[in-house]
Amino acid sequence: MGGPARVRLSDVAARAGVSLGTVSNVLNHPERVAAATRELVLGAIGELGFVPNQSARVLTGATSNVIALVVLDVMSPFFMEAAHAVERLARETGHVVMLSNSQNDRDMEAELLSVLGGQRVRGVVLVPAAGDDDVASRIRGKLPVVLMDHEGVDDCCSVAVDDVAGAGLAVDHLLGLGHRRLGFVGGPRDLRQMSQRALGMRTALEAAGLDPGTSLVEAYVETGMGIQAGMEAADRLLMEGLPTGIVCGNDMLAFGVYRTLSRAGIAVPGDVALIGYDDIDVAADWIVPLTSVRQPTQEMGYRAAQLLLEDTSDPAHVHQHVRLQPELVVRSSCGAR
Predict the structure, then answer these.
(1) Where are the beta strands (DSSP E) in the chain?
(2) Per its UniProt record, what SMART domains does this chain match (predicted)?
């Protein structure tokens, strides 16, 4: 006895009341179809359980409806928020997202790009692994790529946040509270986000007439950017002479710093003012609500995916380098001096 009949493209067209060409465009070139019509066709696809044959799409040279997203750490709340934004754009345009984790490793990143190329994905939204001096060579001649959370190179579009300005906001706030000896806690030193935020602190101190050589101590952890890394960095600061104000490269690092300081009997904000970066959801509800530099994460992810679709659908597309602006969200962890 045979199984249920395979749903055909013509069945979807009949259910949606559109032509076969329109259904094909929704699957292969969704940006060419009006949003209302696209939703009608996608609804019919869902109702009928139609499954596009991806292998056939590759063999016929049809444009893939898969957007690949490669991030440094799939456990990071920041990258997951950005991923949700990429997925939102994908749903709106009839695409799906394939999420991969480079673990901040350039060799793994290269392997992923190679595998994704074989899968004939539409393109890649990529957060590059540490060591950004050769990003252009790492992506040249491969898939269409949009860099996310990273400044642009000539070969592709990019969407990033001005990290120098963001760290400057944190420094100005601490200086305004009377702090004169600051600390920076970062993950891998050669990760662009960390190096730019440290640069922002040094630049802001110089602008205030202070010498970063004596006013700033930096502690990096090359093996991670989570709570454990923050705890390790705080241990170093305790040994070297604790600053009165600390800015961290992300909120997870700040949570680790807080944990170490608390165990050492050092109060936040009573003894040390603490600022994170990213303003992830839990920052507002931390034991001591965390002051943090907020990134427009949703906008960054959505815009990166949007640029990728524009790049892969318009031969006249001109690469764009979008720089978004951060803001400082002040909470209890800084107190007042």
Answers:
(1) 66-71, 96-101, 123-126, 145-148, 157-161, 182-186, 216-220, 245-248, 273-278, 291-294, 321-324, 327-329
(2) HTH_LACI
